[in-house]
Amino acid sequence: MSQVDNPNSVMYVSPVLRAARRLVYEKCRTSDKSFIALKNIAHIEMGQSPNGQDCSSEPQGEPLLNGPTEFGHEYPTPVQWTTAGKKFATKGDLLFCVRGATAGRTNWADQKYAIGRGLAAVHGRQKSGDTAFVYHMLRDRRDVLAAEARGSTFMNMGKQLLHTLPMPSIDFTLQEILGQFLDSVENKTFQFDAWSKKLSPTSFSDIPRIVARIEELAAKVEEARELRSQTQKHLQSFVSSFHLHLASDRNRTLDQILQLDEDRQEVIFGHEYPQVGVRGFGGGLFFRETLDATQTTYKAFNRLYEGAIVLSQVKGWEGAIAGCPDNLVGKYVSPEYRTFRCIEGEALPAYMATLVTSPWFWTQLKNLTRGMGGRRERTRPEKFLTMKIPMPNVIQGLYRILCKRSIIYVHQEIAPWPARKKNRTALMTY
To answer: For residue range 366-393, what is the model confidence (pLDDT) as tens digits?
Structure first.
């Protein structure tokens, strides 16, 4: 998932706004509109950092912005000032990050700022470029810029790249209208009737109808996503509470349930190794990419097998642990991912795969290690296997049902739990 797709990212862009921007750009590209360099419709001021001795945390001189660390939701909050600024943004300028992983992130200048080399200040040229239109087109072309700017180690959107970026060549009045239209989509004030009327005399007259339809569909997707999230939370809560109910006061250390079992495969030149990763917070396993011997420094990988429980030593404490699904059997994980097999008669793989991804389980796992963030200890197998948890007997009837059927089906089957005392007793004594 890219940053613009991730709702938790500061660079997230709603799918409706992304679609509206792309529709405007593509309409220009597929019609008779020509394209000109960005520098012809916008002034671009590339930042330049002042000398360190001329900077201070005390508010003396001009407020200084070095990059997106000072960015807010819309306007920045300066933490440094300088008495010898070299390049400046004026009030109303678009602040555009040009370096690093957050290249393409934007804010607006609410006052005059000195800007460092991590930023560019952009505004439309008088009667040639509308700043709002330029802003939306720049955001739409962010991926294109990133692809061109990606160097061997560090992304840098330089002056030449920005100056020559192709932009639709349309008259200033239409730029203003389209800028306002895209602003309304971004601010969620878009009204179909009003914009249909306003854009009807232009070649963009069909866009409001398309955006309205996308908005309708996006609302349904968002509703479905929310329902799925709520369902997942209820199911996870059910898994942990049901597990604790079955276990009662029967406790086991993990070395009584699981054993370290790794199918170590030496990396050989000429062979390919499809890689698998583990998402945090109970997100499960996912396919990454295929590597060959020239693309890794590891001398061996661990091959996944049916029923394997996979633990990330680095991120296990935040829920990077999961069971291996059938479609990933035979693929590979790095040695930082340790694999465990259920001990026969003590645990069933399907049950453990469901249990280990529950918040209850990885909260227990978090307590095994000390430290914060990147300095947190690795979850070593020997430490992992000492963790004690309540654990039901493998022959209990509902335990079997939970393993043999999907968790959703089980949840549906016993949903009227309080009202079915007779059936509940029968199940518990199965």
So the answer is: 888 776 554 567 899 999 999 999 998 8
For every residue of 227-273, DSSP letters joined together read HHHHHHHHHHHHHHHHHHHHHTT-EEEGGGTEEE--EEEE--TT-EE
Angle (CA) 357 362 368, round 5°: 150
Single pTM value for the model: 0.58
The DSSP result for 123-156, as a single string, is: EEPTTT--HHHHHHHHHHTHHHHHHHH--SS--B
Q: Is 136 exposed, middle or buried (0-12, 13-18, 19+ CB in 10 A)?
A: buried
| 113-115, strands of its sheet edge to edge | 55-56, 80-82, 62-65, 113-115, 88-89
Half-sphere exposure of 158 (CA within 13 A, CB side): 6
Site of tokens 């008779």: 32
**Is residue 385 helix, strand or coil?**
coil
Amino acid at 345: G
**pLDDT digit string (tens) for 9-32?**
667 788 899 999 999 999 988 877
Distance CA 80, CA 210 (A): 45
Answer for the pair 309, 342: CB distance below 8 angstroms, yes or no. yes
- Over the stretch 50-92, which tens digit does the pLDDT of each residue have? 998 899 988 999 999 988 888 888 999 998 999 999 999 999 9
For tokens 């992983």, the residue is: 101
